[in-house]
Each structure stands twice: as C-alpha cells, then as structure tokens.
Amino acid sequence: MVDPETDVYELFAVKYATHGRTQAANFVDPPDPHEAMPIDYFVWAAVSKTRTFVIDMGFTEETAINRARTYIRCPAEALALVGIDAKAVEDVIITHFHYDHIGNFDKFPKADFHLQDREMAFATGRNMLNPAHGSSMNVEDVVGMVRHLYGQRVVFHDGDAELAPGTSVHHIGGHTDGLQAVRVMTKRGWVVVASDACHLYANMETRNPFPIIFDHGAVLAGYDRLRELAPTPGHIVPGHDPLVLDRYPAVSDDLVGIAVRLDEEPIGV
Questions:
Q1: Which of 3-17, 23-37, 151-165 has the lowest mean pLDDT?
Q2: 139 CB-near residues (< 8 Å, 6+ apart)
Q3: Which positions ≥6 away from 50 have C-beta within 8 Å?
Q4: For residue 233, what are the CA distances in angstroms to 4, 191, 255?
Q5: Domains and CATH numbers, the chain
Q6: Alpha carbon distances (Å) from 264 to 54, 79, 235, 248
Q7: Fewer CB atoms inside 10 A, N or C side of the chain?
Q8: What is the phi/psi pair of residue 136, to 5°?
Q9: pTM for the whole thing?
C-alpha cells in the first residue's frame, strides 16, 4: 500500500552529456541513415519525504574523452543541481552495466547498488567474449561492481521487485540480458523510467529498436512490458531522448535544457 504522505516521489531527469550522431546509430532500420539525430545522457532521481533513489551513475570525464562524447558536467554535480548530495545517497539502482550507466562509484560512497542477477552474470560471463556486447562495457566499471559485491554493497534482484512502497524494479532484458526499468509513484501516478529498454520515443513508437541488442525479441516484448507497467504511454520516459527535456517542465529557469520534473504532466503532449 502506498502512503501518499511518504511514498509519493518527486522524479527528476538530469542531463550530463550528449553525443551528435545520425539515425544510423539509433535504429536497426534507420528511416534516413544520414539525418542528424543526437542523443542525450541522463541520470535520474526519485525523492520522497523519507527516501532517495538515484537511478544510474553515468560516466566519467575520462570515459567521455575515450568515447568522444560531449561532457557537460559530472553526474554527481548534475544531481546537486536538483538538491541531491551524491555522498549521502544510500540507494542507487543500476539499470544495466553499459559504460554510460555504472561509472562514478567513488561519488556514491554510502550507496548500495540494486541490480539484476542476470546483469551481473551477463557482464562477467561468456557473452563478453563477443565484442558486440563487450564493447559497450568499461571493464574497470564491471570489476568495480564485483569489488562492491565483495564489499557487501550489492543488492540482487531476480525479476520484478519492490524496493520500497512506491518504487519497484522490473526485469526487461533485450538490450542487455539483465536490463531493468524502474517504476516510481508520483503525484501523477506511476511513471516508468525505461532507461535503455527504450532509448528514444521513436524506437518504441515505430517498434524499430536501438541497434545495440542482446535479444531482439526481448526488446520488442520489453516495449509491451513498459506499456503494461505505465498508465499511459505518456508515463514512460525513454533513456536517451533529447525530447524529454522539451516534453517536461524544467526544475527551474536556470536549468532549462538540463533538469526536468518527470512527476509533472508533460507539456503539450
């Protein structure tokens, strides 16, 4: 049972990096491979009166340089813009192990890390012999998570799980074997942070997936699962779409184009 006094969350998306690219990099079957279509990189946070969950930790400046991404600010600094002190955060949900989601361990010294059993197995098992999967991982980040496992800071989930009243994780798979989405109760109802279960609105709307795929069928089934978890398609938030910053109200005038409120109704949608 969700208590409206304690279990309803403010929900933020905060941009920390971007990458200029074309449709060819964003779809299995790009409608126009040469058309410009940048993506953004976000971290998310759910904040109630009693608890804070950070969703993913982004990547470091070093990784941005190595992978030719445009780095705006450290994700921990991005979270500070919406009043969250990364050093005090006790719960971080890791949607999956790709490089843009599990960097910056040192910025979250008090956190436990919530992840799927299948993602740890995927990232440390035989699938990493295939460069198509391993190239999206930073080995030092994966090793870092293993170290935190031995440090008793990893919380494993097998499928769907409630982390607290008003916050749950849901195994989706597809993009990676253990990818999970996050569902958060807000004042506008359940909002689903899809992460990379849906990179862009257009991926799900056209059933034309992002091309980094472990299991194509699971990606398409994941779109259906996201719709089951959300009251309406307008309650699903994709993981990398710049349109998120247009569709939701900014946290403040100073943060237009950087941080938005996902617990507010979308603008003009």
A1: 3-17
A2: none
A3: 6
A4: 23, 10, 25
A5: 10-166+241-261 (3.60.15.10)
A6: 18, 18, 10, 7
A7: N
A8: -90, 0
A9: 0.97
